[in-house]
Amino acid sequence: MDLFSQLAELLSGWSGSYADLVFSLIGVAAALAALLPAPKEGQTAYRIFHAAVNFLAMNILRARNAGTRK
C-alpha cells in the first residue's frame, strides 16, 4: 500500500465523507483571502468577515496582508 492510499484511508476514517467538503472549504477560503484587500478603519462588518475568511483559510499568525503588518 502506498503513502497516498494510506493517507486517504486515514482522512476518511478521521472525518468520514466530510473530508472533501472540509478541504474544499479551506481551499476556497484561502483563495478568497489572498484576493481580498485588508479592511480599513471604520469597516467593522468587513473586518469581521475578513477575519472569518482568514480563520477558515487557516491564515493564523503566519499569513498577513501587506497593509496589516506592524
What's the structural blueprint in terms of helices and strands?
Layout: H1 3-15, H2 19-35, H3 44-56
Helix pairs in contact: 2-3
Overview of the structural elements:
The longest helix has 17 residues. The protein has 70 residues and is mainly α. The protein has 3 helices and no strands. Helices cover 61% and strands 0% of the residues. The protein has one domain.
Rg, Cα atoms, Å? 16 Å
**Order of helix and strand elements from N to C terminus:** HHH
Mean pLDDT across all amino acids? 81
The proportion of residues in beta strands is under 5%
Give the overall shape, derived from the CA principal axes. elongated
Largest sheet: none
Short recap of the structure:
With 70 residues, this protein is mostly helical. Helices cover 61% and strands 0% of the residues.
What features would you highlight for this structure?
70 residues; mainly alpha; 0% strand; elongated
